[in-house]
Amino acid sequence: MAKAFIRRYLPTPEQIREMKGLGFLRNRLSDPSLWHLNRRSASWAMFWGLFCAFLPVPFQMVPATAIAIVFRINLPLMILLVWITNPLTLLPFMYSGYWLGSHLLDVPMLTWHQLEHLATRALHMSDAPVDAFEVGLLQQLKPFFLGSVVLGLVLGTIGYIAMRYFWRWHVVTAWRKRLEARLAQKSNDISAQ
């Protein structure tokens, strides 16, 4: 079944409970619906997991866990999907989000020199006093934020639909195999008589 195929790649409840950064959510992880895997929970986990993966915020596992708890959907699959954006894949996804946002807002893409300057300013914002915050920085990051959210929504929707179809295909295939096995058994019984 689809459950067995998906469960092979998911972390166990114990592994997730031991993850750092969950804090106050750790005691809510005993809800059995967070660990139940069916078509509904897997499909919604695909949507929310991919959406949270592209959120332009640090610690994306925390909102993903909160969403899983509130909507009672499969947590391990969501956590697995959130890690699509990891330190190795982060730059291509950030660039894709910025590219999409700049096209949606119809603003020109930044040059490499401008991106380097923007990154330097963003990294040193914590060192500067609050009144030194530049409004231009927020304006330059607006395409990135918009593009990341839209990219998360689009990929989450595609993931939701793909999981629904994958689950249905897997169930129908299993039904057909069982039907063929029964028909083969019935024809063997008839020929044996």
From TrEMBL:
<protein>
    <submittedName>
        <fullName>DUF2062 domain-containing protein</fullName>
    </submittedName>
</protein>
<dbReference type="InterPro" id="IPR018639">
    <property type="entry name" value="DUF2062"/>
</dbReference>
<keyword id="KW-0812">Transmembrane</keyword>
<feature type="transmembrane region" description="Helical">
    <location>
        <begin position="45"/>
        <end position="71"/>
    </location>
</feature>
<keyword id="KW-1133">Transmembrane helix</keyword>
<dbReference type="Pfam" id="PF09835">
    <property type="entry name" value="DUF2062"/>
</dbReference>
<feature type="domain" description="DUF2062">
    <location>
        <begin position="24"/>
        <end position="176"/>
    </location>
</feature>
<feature type="transmembrane region" description="Helical">
    <location>
        <begin position="78"/>
        <end position="100"/>
    </location>
</feature>
<feature type="transmembrane region" description="Helical">
    <location>
        <begin position="144"/>
        <end position="167"/>
    </location>
</feature>
<keyword id="KW-0472">Membrane</keyword>
